[in-house]
Inverse folding.
């Protein structure tokens, strides 16, 4: 079987000489770009000067210790190499002593370690049974950590997480938090799953693709990038772009940079007043699917043309209004 460290170039090393000791490789950089839009107004994060326990070499050793020589691309497995990033991720969520945190895809447990160090009790959901075993072995038996082998997109959070909160005496005190270095290939599904759960979670802080994080955090409707997911995000939360993480901080190195985004979840009484959330988002999707059609045409399967025209008149728009002309 091919060893893991033969599949990706190791960080550069200077050749040792009798007169000079072997040097450690330079650390990956965390990079926060200058604001180019409102979504980019992020907290400045200093570049890491040292690598912590979860660096390139310890990640390699952890994976090889379980006989897992190749991260699974199908599961979006890109492991964090820089413990400084994990610390900033925890700080972005304001994790403190006594918090209960849902972590999705703990991988080698590098973020889990930072959460436990901050005093949190962690409920981790891991789809890969090999990685779940690795995390269990790494932290041993502790009441601060529970590992569930499950696909988060098929996992009923309320049925499993709420009893866990009650067990920890947390259910009536305050809401839990979500902190995760999320597999990029399930980001939209997870966002849709978590954001309507403002009764359970106060904040959701995720590592996503940089482009995705920028798009979700930009609340302006006067952009071509505005999509139904933006309406969904702003309906249920207040998003904030935190900082960008360069792809050199991951193993294997992805083709794109990552970014941390925070969603402050709203309580139900703070949602926009609609009769039915399901019907509202059905209407939104229909409007976006027919962006170059008049709204009275693209929405006619939901209500009559007369009702649509009356609604448009009530908000001062012409009856010939098209979705793309509204800024969507």
């Amino acid at each position: 079987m091919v060893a893991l460290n033969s599949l990706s170039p190791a960080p550069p090393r200077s050749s040792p000489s009798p007169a000079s000791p072997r040097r450690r490789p330079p650390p990956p950089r965390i990079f926060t770009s200058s604001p180019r839009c409102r979504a980019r107004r992020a907290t400045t994060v200093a570049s890491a000067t040292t690598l912590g326990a979860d660096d390139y070499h310890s990640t390699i050793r952890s994976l090889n210790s379980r006989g897992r020589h190749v991260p699974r691309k199908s599961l979006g497995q890109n492991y964090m190499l820089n413990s400084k990033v994990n610390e900033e991720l925890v700080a972005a969520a304001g994790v403190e002593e006594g918090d209960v945190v849902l972590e999705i895809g703990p991988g080698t447990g590098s973020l889990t370690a930072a959460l436990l160090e901050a005093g949190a009790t962690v409920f981790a959901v891991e789809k890969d049974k090999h990685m779940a075993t690795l995390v269990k072995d790494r932290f041993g038996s502790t009441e601060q950590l529970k590992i569930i082998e499950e696909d988060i997109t098929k996992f009923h959070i309320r049925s499993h997480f709420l009893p866990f909160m009650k067990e920890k005496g947390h259910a009536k005190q305050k809401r839990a938090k979500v902190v995760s270095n999320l597999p990029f290939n399930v980001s939209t599904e997870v966002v849709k799953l978590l954001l309507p759960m403002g009764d359970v979670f106060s904040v959701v802080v995720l590592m996503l693709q940089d482009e995705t994080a920028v798009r979700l955090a930009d609340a302006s409707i006067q952009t071509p990038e505005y999509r139904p997911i933006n309406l969904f995000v702003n309906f249920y939360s207040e998003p904030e772009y935190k900082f960008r993480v360069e792809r050199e901080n991951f193993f294997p190195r992805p083709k794109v940079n990552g970014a941390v985004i925070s969603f402050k979840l709203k309580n139900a009484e703070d949602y926009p007043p609609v009769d039915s959330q399901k019907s509202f988002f059905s209407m939104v999707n229909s409007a976006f699917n027919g962006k170059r059609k008049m709204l009275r045409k693209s929405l006619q399967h939901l209500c009559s043309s007369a009702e649509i025209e009356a609604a448009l008149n009530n908000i001062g728009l012409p009856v010939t209004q098209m979705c793309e002309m509204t800024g969507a």
